[in-house]
Amino acid sequence: MGRKNRTRQRAQPNRDGRPEGKRNRDDGWGAGYSEIIKENKLFEHYYTELKIVPEGEFEEFMEAMREPLPATIRITGYKSHAKEILHTLKEKYFKEVQDLVVDGQKIEAPQPLSWYPDELAWHTNLSRKILRKSPLLEKFHQFLVSETESGNISRQEAVSMIPPLLMKIEPQHKILDMCAAPGSKTAQLIEMLHSDMDIPFPEGFVIANDVDNKRCYLLVHQAKRLNSPCIMVVNHDASSIPRLHFDQDGKKDILFYDRILCDVPCSGDGTMRKNIDVWKKWTTSNSIHLHGLQIRIAVRGVEQLAVGGRMVYSTCSLNPIEDEAVIAALLEKSEGALELADASADLPGLKYMPGITSWKVMTKEGQWFSDWSEVPTSRHTQIRPTMFPPTDPEKLANMKLERCMRILPHHQNTGGFFVAVLVKKAPMPWNRRHPKGETPAEGNPSVPDTPDPSEVKKDHVCGFSSVTELHIDMKCSVCSSPPPPKKMKLFGFKEDPFVFLTEDDPIFPPIQAFYDLSPDFPKLNVLTRTREGKKRNLYMVSKELRNVLLNNSERMKVINTGVKVWSRNNDGEQFGCAFRLAQEGIYTLCPYIRARIINISVEDVKVLLTQENPFLSKLGDDAHTQAKKLEMGSIVLRYLPDPQDLDAPQCPIDLCGWRGKTSIRAFVSRNECLHYLRMVGVEVFRDKQGKRNDGSTETQEESTEDAEGLSQEADLLEQEGEETEQNANGTEPVSSTCDGPTSYGPSGPELSIPLGTPS
């Protein structure tokens, strides 16, 4: 390695003291883009000509595109305490912020999205700059950051919430998210899978894929907040994602998914309200270059979709070349195997425009083509026949492209979006062919074979052969055979192995005895990340994901899976068990634990989360009596709701804890601690001077570190899609300070923090 050039000149600061080209992170929406004028004549000309906006509404459409996008939050729906969070928001924070005037702007009262079920999604005109800088909104901001980090709230664009809702997910569904990063839609899929919190291991699972290795770790961070044993993150090119196998009734079978989310890479002109540089960079060539890749990804998706399954195709683009053209190409090549579903009644209250059946293609120079026959030979490598609508009127009518849905920004103050729901009625035509004497597995198409050369039409024009730098593997099923299998290439960080334990592993007897695990505890679902040496952490996955992992270890690159349930604590060996419980997996593990449980009251929760290592005598009489009967070591602290006490939380709470010689403590992360305190009526708030609401004051070092940690979390969670560096195990970013002793594990710190006295 050569020595770094120490004479390299530093970037010269600009007028406000920042290096040239650097944007102040505290600037609001549109900061750093002051030189960009929100105007693009080619964009206006193109969409005026295509008539995707109703007559007389184009000016309103353009005005909406120039306005900042409203902030939108979604309450995690599968958590048993979603109603408690919603109640806190409506009765406390929303009332405090409405009608406030900040920097001359009146803050509108947050409103629920009319089409989102159970009032679990809300939007407001608050921008990040106002939210983070106004002292009047500081409490609300701290609430949003901590609840987002603990997985109870997600900041997500409104239109981004639509595709998962249209998938109609049930707990037994096998789901593939093909282009999943940064993970907001993946989180929705996980929530829907866990709609019944009484089932720790739903039969279904989510496999979340992304081609970008670094963005996979952002995806891991999003998924980890939900602590599900039914999610696996993989790293593959979606257009050639491998076909997986699994054991079924003692036989190896091909895995077909019940639901697939195909949210493909796109030009993103529907995101101009938040991605302001799109105004300057937009040309029609973006869509033309992406069209081939979008078809290849969608084709790979429907190939792996089970017969009877649903695939939702979506883009944040308004361009029909990326939208209806892709759907039309899929329907035409499917020869009746696919059908566009009518989703008009699935989201009452959602305003959208039906898909169009006529469009033209324009080059970046402004040249229009209405039909493939008009395209000169010199442009055949860029402009493909699949970019045009079908010329046969009957075939076009049978496609029912009007069932596609295009969301326009000015209709409900959102971003622009396109979504279509496809249902698979039969195997794809190229999957029906199989060698003589062999039949495909019942209900599943066979692996594609080389077609008979006599069947290839001489005048066939391949829609998959668009020459782009992203063209990989997928070839036309008519004019060529599929590529031969290739050895999987690994990119990015080399992950630790996923090693499943056997039922007779010596690690189990002390754990089983200490926690009195029920006989039906699934030992085979427990895994670790090391083949040799002491096992530091134990994780659990669902039975179905274990099946997939064991049968495809050489076929796919797994970034992360499983939820941590136990962490090694060498001090615990003297008490009978070297593994303490981990808060991340407490709701997965608790149905099997029959010992080491202390039932606590609301007042006990307040004591445990506001005092560091309180004496056993600080607990209520009932909890104190239970604690005295237990030996030292890891414990479960369980609150059960009282239906008669409506002022107390009406949902169960399970906390990991430690019973010491004379004291007791809870092991929960800082943000979860804040969450549970809010649930029991304690509001902990730090003002700009570092004063806590109990009147004490932090040191300057504490205050500075904590502010940095909060800002780091806000940057990560409020800027969807921005990459973040994380280690190989997909750990969450750790805040820079804590008030109590910290124990570090693969998913960040667990700590017990004295945050103030109950108010």
From TrEMBL:
It catalyses: cytidine(50) in tRNA + S-adenosyl-L-methionine = 5-methylcytidine(50) in tRNA + S-adenosyl-L-homocysteine + H(+); cytidine(34) in tRNA precursor + S-adenosyl-L-methionine = 5-methylcytidine(34) in tRNA precursor + S-adenosyl-L-homocysteine + H(+); cytidine(49) in tRNA + S-adenosyl-L-methionine = 5-methylcytidine(49) in tRNA + S-adenosyl-L-homocysteine + H(+); cytidine(48) in tRNA + S-adenosyl-L-methionine = 5-methylcytidine(48) in tRNA + S-adenosyl-L-homocysteine + H(+). Keywords: Methyltransferase, Nucleus, RNA-binding, S-adenosyl-L-methionine, Transferase, tRNA processing, tRNA-binding. It comes from Cyprinus carpio (Common carp). Residues 13-28 have a biased composition (Basic and acidic residues). Residues 726-740 have a biased composition (Polar residues). Residues 699-708, 715-725 have a biased composition (Acidic residues). S-adenosyl-L-methionine binds at C179, A180, A181, P182, G183, S184, K185, D210, D237, D263. Residues 61-425 form the SAM-dependent MTase RsmB/NOP-type domain. This is tRNA (cytosine(34)-C(5))-methyltransferase.
